[in-house]
Design brief:
The complex is a heterodimer of chains A (about 260) and B (about 100).
Chain A lengths: L3 E7 L3 E7 L3 H14 L2 E12 L5 H9 L3 E2 L21 E9 L2 E4 L4 E2 L5 E2 L5 E5 L4 E11 L10 E14 L7 H5 L5 E4 L2 E4 L10 H5 L5 E16 L5 H26 L2
Antiparallel strand pairs in A: 1-2, 2-14, 3-10, 4-8, 5-7, 5-10, 6-9, 11-14, 12-13
Chain B lengths: L4 E7 L3 E7 L3 H11 L5 E7 L9 E6 L6 H26 L2
Antiparallel strand pairs in B: 1-2, 2-4, 3-4
Helix pairs in contact in B: 1-2
Classes of the chains: A alpha+beta (about 260), B alpha+beta (about 100).
Chain lengths: ~260, ~100
């Protein structure tokens, strides 16, 4: 079956689309890849030169690591795949904070060492420094994947459901299904019960139970999926989908070449 | 990108047991599903013995025929490549 894509909503950080012609395993592989395997940059090591804030070093380091960074993962290499010995501009980048209270330190106060990396959101509060408190640190940014740590997870929310198809086979217009449906799939128009938009159906089957004529049928299309994807700004939603598809495809290509060596 | 690392645990005329180093459900389930589309595949399954620690081990049994198990597996991988190439192409028009 041919693949068809229908984009319902697309913003920088959110995508809602229908893909049909995919097997359930393909849809799941895509979902898992977007969450766990597409790499991104995040702060991984922090050197504290001075920290007299109310948060101790490790707490601050965790907060810094969780700040979403916007960067193109294609420009960098994973640390264990890098050919360098101790770190280079291909596998690492830096950021620093130098501040003295009274001041609230936000993610926008991170001074990036690389112009290709920026903070995805400016207004994340890192720590509130009171009068006389100082913070002087240098952070090392590395590439990683969601499998390694949640700070490297690309898709914040990524899920799909099979496209539901609701149909009425027998009806006496009693309207019970309209009352009982939590998703407003049914509507009453001029005394007749009709199906509104069945894409919102959650397949809870409350309508099937409520119908005294057993006249409602709910079916799920096994090869059509409604995807909802949200990123935290590290990559745009569309870039993430494209990257994940390419990653899975490239992995299959590399497996093919390994297999060719084996069969000879 | 790292190469896919395979270890052959068992090889037979119509059987194959392969260890995929560093892989997980993301790719293994996709591969298994593609294998099961082939009518000449009798058994296609994978197992991860200890979560997060073990490598997946795939077991494949094929029918007697023109293709050896490696070729059957190769054809399953080809189907994945074709499908994802098609997906890539369709995305270009619509989501970028």
């Amino acid at each position: 079956m041919a693949i068809e894509i229908n984009v319902i909503e697309l913003t920088e950080r959110y995508a809602k689309f229908i893909i049909s012609g995919l097997t359930p395993a393909s849809a799941n592989a895509l979902r898992r890849c977007m969450i766990n395997e597409v790499p991104r940059m995040a702060i991984d090591e922090v050197n504290f030169y001075e920290n007299t804030s109310v948060l101790f070093d490790e707490q601050l380091a965790l907060r810094l690591g969780l700040i979403p960074l916007r960067a193109d993962p294609g420009l960098y290499v994973l640390e264990d795949e890098c050919t360098c010995e101790d770190g280079c501009s291909l596998c690492q980048s830096t950021a620093s904070i130098s501040a003295e209270g009274p001041i609230k330190i936000y993610s926008s106060d991170l001074v990036m060492g690389d112009e290709n990396i920026s903070v995805a959101d400016d207004n994340i509060l890192i720590v509130d420094l009171k009068d006389g408190q100082k913070l002087l640190l240098n952070a090392i940014i590395k590439l990683g994947t969601g499998e390694m740590h949640a700070k490297w997870q690309n898709a914040v929310v990524c899920g799909y459901k099979n496209i539901p198809h609701v149909s009425i086979t027998d009806c006496n217009d009693c309207g019970r299904c309209v009352d009982v449906c939590p998703r407003d799939v049914f509507k009453c128009v001029d005394g007749r019960v009709m199906i509104g938009d069945d894409i919102n159906c959650s397949c809870c089957n409350l309508c099937v139970e409520a119908c005294e004529l057993d006249g409602i049928v709910i079916e799920e299309d096994p090869e059509a999926f409604l995807f909802k994807l949200e990123t935290d700004g590290g990559m745009t939603a569309s870039a993430l989908i494209v990257y994940a598809v390419r990653m899975l495809r490239d992995k299959a290509v590399r497996l093919k070449s390994v297999l060719e060596r084996f069969s000879h | 990108m790292k190469d896919v690392e395979l270890k052959v645990l068992r090889e037979g005329t119509n059987e194959l047991e392969l260890e995929f180093v560093g892989e997980g459900h993301t790719f293994m389930n996709l591969l298994k599903s593609s294998l099961l589309e082939d009518p000449d595949v009798l058994v296609a399954t994978y197992d991860i013995k200890f979560m997060n620690i073990s490598n997946p081990i795939m077991y494949l049994k094929t029918r007697e025929g023109d293709r050896n198990p490696y070729q059957v597996l190769g054809d399953a991988v080809d189907r994945i490549i074709t499908k994802f190439d098609e997906l890539s192409a369709k995305l270009v028009g619509v989501i970028i």
